[in-house]
Design brief:
- By secondary structure, the protein is α+β, with helices and mostly antiparallel strands.
- The chain has three domains: 81 residues, no CATH class; 94 residues, Orthogonal Bundle (Helix Hairpins); 149 residues, Alpha-Beta Complex (Adenine-n6-DNA-methyltransferase TaqI, Chain A, domain 2), CATH 3.90.220.
- It has ten helices and 14 strands.
- Strands 5-11-8-10 form a four-stranded antiparallel beta sheet. Strands 2-1-3 form a three-stranded antiparallel beta sheet. It has a three-stranded antiparallel beta sheet with strand order 9-13-12, with no helix packed on it.
- α4 runs antiparallel to α10.
Amino acid sequence: MPSGDVLVSTVRPNLNAVAIVPDYLDGATASTGFAVLRPDPAKVDPRYLYHWVRSPEFVGQMTRRATGASYPAVTDRVVRESKLPVPPLPEQRRIAAVLDKADAIRRKRRESIRLLDELLRSAFLEMFGDPVTNEKGRGVVSLAELLTEPLRNGLSPAKGGAVVAQVLTLTAITGAHFESTAVKTASFSHAARRDQFVGPDDFLICRGNGNLKLIGRAKFPHGLAAPTVFPDTMIAARIDRSRVEQTYLETAWGMPGLRRALERGARTTSGIHKINQKVLASLCFPLPPIEQQKRYTLIAARATDLREKFFSDGTDHLYDSLVQRTFGGEGFG
C-alpha cells in the first residue's frame, strides 16, 4: 500500500483504530483486519479523508452497522459505503491543514501530561521504592489490614427493574484518573443497601472485565457529589484514612509489580476475567509512615494543579470541536 492510504480497523469500530500510511511505510502490507482506503487525488485529499474517519459521525455510522455481540465488526463494504461531505479540493486541503495543527496541539498536550505522570511516578519510587521488591525495608501490610469494614460487591442492574438509581460505569475507575462523569441511570430489582452506595473513602476496584489489563484497576471517587451506586463489576474497599493516604494507595496500586500480582490473581470464566475479594484482601505492599505519605500527597497535588492548567484554556478540545463543525454540518470559516 502506498503512503497516503487510510487504514480503518473493521473490528470494534467504536474504538476508532485508524491511521494514515506515512512515507516510511510506503509499500507495506496491511492485515485483513483493516479496510484500506485509497483516495482518488482528483476527488479527495488524503489528510481530509483521514480526519473524516476519526470523526464522531463516521464512528457512529460504523458502530450502528457493526454486527456481532461479543466481537462487533463491520465489512470493508460498510466502510466504503460511508458518506462524507466533499467540498472542492482546495477547501479540503485548507480544512485538513487546520485540523492537522489542532491535532498537533492536542498530541503535545497529551505528551506533556504523560511526562508529568511519569515524573510523579519517579518521585514515588524515589521516596518509597518499588512496592513489590520493597528495597527500602518498609513494614508490609495486606489490603485487609487497612479496611474499616469488609470488602463488598456492588449492585447488579436488572432489566425491567422497578428501582431506578444513578450507577457508576467502569470507565470511572479504569483510566488514568477517576472520571466523576462516568455515571448512568440504571434499573435494579431492589433498592441499594447503604453499603452499596459509594463513600468518599471507598477504594473502588474493577472486579470483572473482558480485558485482563483492566482487572484490579482502582480509584477513589474524587469529585463524586450525588449519591451513586457502584455496580457488581466493582468491589469497594473502605480505607482507614488514619493509616494510608489515598494518593499513596492509588499510586502504589498502579505500579507494575502490583499490576502483575493482580493479573495473576484473576480467573477467567466464559471470556470474562474476574478477581475475588479473597485475592484482593491478601494483596500486600509496604506502608511508610503517614507523614511521609502526606508529603507525597502534596507533591501529587501540585502535579494535579499543573494538569488542570493544561486543560483550563480548552485547547485540548479544539480538535474535537473543529471536527464536529466540519463533519457535523456546521462548517467553519
